Amino acid sequence: MELIYLRKLTDLDVTEEYLSWFATTEVNNYLDVKFLSKESATKYIAEGFASGSHFMYGIFLSDSDKHIGNCKIGPVNQISKVADLVTVIGDPNYHRKGLGSLAIKLGSELAFERYNIRKLSGRINSKNLGSVKAYLSAGWIIEGVLKDHDIRDGIVSDLYCVSKFNQNFKIAFES
């Protein structure tokens, strides 16, 4: 049995604990989203599924159904079949336990199988060693480096462009 599973987020998942994750530097230091409100989070989740632009999933512990983080597929480019995959272990009690890597693997499978994504990608600040390790452990590769592309806390850093290809993707031609 897997230690975690993913399921679609709903407005019921946007609790005070959930919102608190995005108010801590430990979690949001490398994210572009900070200090969410319940209204903005629930709207974002619903709009993504309705439009097909992005899909928000929660990361839950299999043994207790505890919500410990999120996995976002998107934005999705439906023409080229590419999307970003962003994972966050929000609950600090579950950092550095290998669950991020497992969530990335599950999110990749979900994106490939359910949404027919051809290629997943992401950008990781080179100083965010935990995320770099998690994506590489999940079978992703570093495709390139954007030199001095990011600034966090006044420090200029490289961004790693990471990706994973869907080995089972087949282009459907119309006849």
Please describe the topology of this protein.
Blueprint: E1 4-8, H1 16-21, H2 25-28, H3 38-51, E2 55-61, E3 67-77, E4 82-89, H4 99-114, E5 119-125, H5 129-137, E6 141-152, E7 155-165
Parallel strand pairs: 4-5
Antiparallel strand pairs: 1-2, 2-3, 3-4, 5-7, 6-7
Helix pairs in contact: 4-5
Low-confidence stretches: none
Strand content: 25-35%
Number of strands: 7
How many helices? The count is 5
Q: What is the H/E string?
A: EHHHEEEHEHEE
SS class: alpha+beta
Mean pLDDT: 92
CATH homologous superfamily (4th level) name of the domain at 4-118? Gcn5-related N-acetyltransferase (GNAT)
Structure write-up:
The chain has helices spanning 16-21, 25-28, 38-51, 99-114, 129-137; strands at 4-8, 55-61, 67-77, 82-89, 119-125, 141-152, 155-165. The chain is of the alpha+beta class and 175 residues long. It has a domain at 4-118: Gcn5-related N-acetyltransferase (GNAT) (Aminopeptidase, 3-Layer(aba) Sandwich), CATH 3.40.630. A seven-stranded mixed sheet has the order 1-2-3-4-5-7-6.
Task: Summarize this structure briefly.
By secondary structure, the chain is of the alpha+beta class. Helices cover 28% and strands 35% of the residues. It has a domain of 115 residues: Aminopeptidase.
